[in-house]
Backbone:
């Protein structure tokens, strides 16, 4: 996304604000503003270069030019299949398949969703890097939200912190859940001596998960879950904490039972478009392995 910019006409109620104050009101974070100042972007009032301390007047035209998107030299484009649910010049929504990482890692340095996105961008002439707004564990499937430029990423990240990016998950857990619905409000932190595993601990970060049962059998339950926070492994940790670990989630007490991954799918994603404010809702189809498991309940 080359030479991306926004332009605003200043109203009487906005006159007297500094550029810094006004851009913060637009949702431009301090970090992004620093990138604009020092990374090749620009701030102009009526065509004249200004600083963040410049004061706006009624009738001024403020133009905010964003730095050219720089594609990471270490993130290689690879033809990873992408199930694209939605795409425009600002955002991308994909239905991630299981057994594919969101980003490269030491254990899985290639063939990630991020590698596939860079390849997709290059094939379609999009000058951008990967700005993940939501990410999923390697074995979790479902809807993921990606911003295509810095401003969209800043706005969506701010919205996510305020609960404006909503995700509904489906999970198959062990046992018959007796509660029809409920909330787990239990802080999550790292498990001692592990760089991967998390646990419920008073020393952890606040974590809140809402759940309701969709289908209950004798040995397994299909649960729908909504997150208020986005801690690492939050659903997996909270369900295990309740005594109902996810089927296939051997890290947190689950058994495979024909499902060699955790039975977790990001089924619904909703948010307001960062540039237009339009409400968007997406549903991601459930993979065959989890569909088969659900049918057996």
Residues:
């Amino acid at each position: 996304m080359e030479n991306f910019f926004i332009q605003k006409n200043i109203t009487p109620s906005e006159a007297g604000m500094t550029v810094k104050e006004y851009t913060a009101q637009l949702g431009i974070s301090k970090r992004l503003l620093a990138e604009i100042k020092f990374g090749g972007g620009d701030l102009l009032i009526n065509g004249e270069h200004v600083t963040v301390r410049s004061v706006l007047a009624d009738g001024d035209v403020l133009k905010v030019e964003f730095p050219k998107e720089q594609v990471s030299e270490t993130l290689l484009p690879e033809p990873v299949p992408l199930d694209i649910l939605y795409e425009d010049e600002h955002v991308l929504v994909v239905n991630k398949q299981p057994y594919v990482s969101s980003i490269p890692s030491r254990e899985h340095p290639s063939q990630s969703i991020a590698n596939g996105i860079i390849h997709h961008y290059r094939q379609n002439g999009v000058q951008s890097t990967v700005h993940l707004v939501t990410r999923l564990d390697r074995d979790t499937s479902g809807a993921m939200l990606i911003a295509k430029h810095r401003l969209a990423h800043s706005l969506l990240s701010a919205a996510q912190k305020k609960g404006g990016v909503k995700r509904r998950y489906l999970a198959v857990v062990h046992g018959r859940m007796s509660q029809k619905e409920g909330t787990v409000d239990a802080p999550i932190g790292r498990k001692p001596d592990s760089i991967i595993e998390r646990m419920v601990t008073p020393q952890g970060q606040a974590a809140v998960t809402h759940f309701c049962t969709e289908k209950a059998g004798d040995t397994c339950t299909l649960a729908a879950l909504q997150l208020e926070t986005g801690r690492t492994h939050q659903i997996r940790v909270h369900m295990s904490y309740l005594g109902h670990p996810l089927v296939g989630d051997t890290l947190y007490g689950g058994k495979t039972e024909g499902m060699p991954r955790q039975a977790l799918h990001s089924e619904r994603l909703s948010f307001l478009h960062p540039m237009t404010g339009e409400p968007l809702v997406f549903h991601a189809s459930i993979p065959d392995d989890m569909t088969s498991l659900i049918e057996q309940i």
